[in-house]
Design a protein that fits this description.
Layout: H1 2-43, H2 54-67, E1 87-89, E2 107-114, E3 129-138, E4 142-151, H3 152-156, H4 169-178
Length: 181
């Protein structure tokens, strides 16, 4: 009895530490998913700031006038990666502006900064290349930052139509042939 009684605190501490590590791992996985989800959404948009999205501009203005702190608001009208500049949400919301269930107490933000792909200089007037950073913060001090670079040149290689027979695979194939690959 004495031996079991002496070991019980150590066993409880071990079980508690294991449960805490499991919770931290779960939160880190959730943060990673939230970051990749938003990054995939942004990456699917064309990288061309020369034609700002009229609908996005109107939506942002109405959100500011009517809602004050919009807590993210709808991104349904966003049409380029640059529409996501300075976007944030507490709690995280989907593209339509509806809170994501199970993520109360979480924060998600996107920062899109134009850059020159040749000099790597940030905050240039180049609207054909962007550095996109998504930040997610959650309970327990969890933080996840993911950065990607996106250029208008990538748009040339993407199929943006709904027609399955109209692909841009030929452009990529031709480019690879020219490079001798």
């Amino acid at each position: 009895m004495g031996i079991v009684g002496a070991l019980m605190p150590a066993i409880f501490a071990l079980v508690g530490a294991s449960a805490e590590r499991g919770l931290i791992a779960q939160r880190e996985a959730q943060a990673t998913w939230l970051a990749h989800d938003l990054l995939a959404e942004i990456g699917a948009q064309p990288c061309n700031g020369d034609e700002p999205g009229l609908v996005a501009g109107i939506t942002e203005t109405l959100d500011e006038l009517l809602g004050g702190l919009t807590q993210g608001g709808s991104r349904a009208g966003y049409t380029t990666v640059f529409d996501y500049a300075e976007w944030d949400s507490y709690p995280p919301v989907d593209r339509n502006g509806d809170p994501l269930p199970g993520f109360e107490g979480w924060y998600r933000a996107a920062r899109v900064i134009p850059f020159d792909p040749f000099t790597k200089a940030l905050r240039t007037n180049n609207t054909n290349a962007a550095m996109i950073t998504v930040t997610v913060m959650g309970p327990g001090g969890i933080r996840k930052d993911i950065t990607m670079f996106r250029t208008a040149a990538m748009d040339l290689l993407r199929d943006t139509t709904d027609n399955p027979s109209d692909t841009k695979d030929g452009v990529l194939t031709d480019l690879l042939k020219e490079l001798g690959l």
